[in-house]
Amino acid sequence: MLIDSHCHIAGPEFVQDLEDVVDRARTAGLAGALVILAADDEPELKQAASVSARWDQVRFSIGIHPHAAGTFAPDPDEASRRVERAFEGQPLARAVGEIGLDYHYDFAPRDVQQLVFRSQIRLARRLRRPIVIHTREAEDDTFHILQEERAWDVGGVFHCFTGDREMAKRALDIGFYLSLAGIVTFSRAHELKEVARMAPIDRLLIETDSPFLAPVPHRGTRNEPAHVARVAEVVAELRGTTPEAIAAATGENFTRLFTP
Ligand SMILES: [Zn+2]
Ligand SMILES: [Zn+2]
pTM score, two decimals? Predict the structure, then answer.
């Protein structure tokens, strides 16, 4: 049961050929996907209906990305109200995200990113839904906030995990899952390959983050859910098992977190 646990196929990059993208995903053996929707992106929220009409096994995660947090500087809680409204309009919504902190790009002031992140964790707790975390160069603040907001009550996943073994342990210790993306296929990703080897199999997910981050040998092209098969292959190689076993385990983890 191969599943792409994080992709943005309701975005503008896929409007033209969504049907083909879904066909290729099915042909590659995918049983489903978690499609991320930005709560402040009306066209994407609307396009979600076309996605689920073509692929009924998808589930959605809705949030305000840290890049977009700046809009909510005057009223950070407005971010979670937007997410809540979008949730009410989307029967297949199963998680809050992606949410978090991005200090690499710093598109929004850090204090605003933090408030918007906190507000959405509180919403997730109210909705009793897991969270999908985006964190980049913000490890300590991320864990500090997860701790203060008692995020383990709902749990969730560190999407596109790129941290080291120590960070992986911190995430696992508070009950979170790690999701590996195409970066694990890059030859220079030594530390991440170590994480892929040591992480408990019942806490791993795999993803594409399409349209971003195409895995080797597709680097530089638009990524799509079918390529999650390549991530499964590489993780299987690293762990000395088969892609089928990785698909089965990560599929089971996905079901536990995000379905029915
Ligand atoms: Zn992200
Ligand atoms: Zn993403």
Answer: 0.97
In which residue are the tokens 């840290």 written? 66
Q: Please tell me the number of the ligand nearest to residue 223's CA.
A: 2
C-alpha 63 – ligand 2 centre gap (Å)? 11
CA of 173 to the centre of ligand 2 (A): 23
Find the ligand nearest to 161 CA: 1
pLDDT, tens only, 156-173 = 999 999 999 999 999 999
83 within 8 A of 39, measured Cβ to Cβ: yes
126: CA distance to ligand 2 center in Å?
23
Q: How far is the CA of 132 from the centre of ligand 1 (A)?
A: 9
Tokens of residue 203, six digits:
């806490």
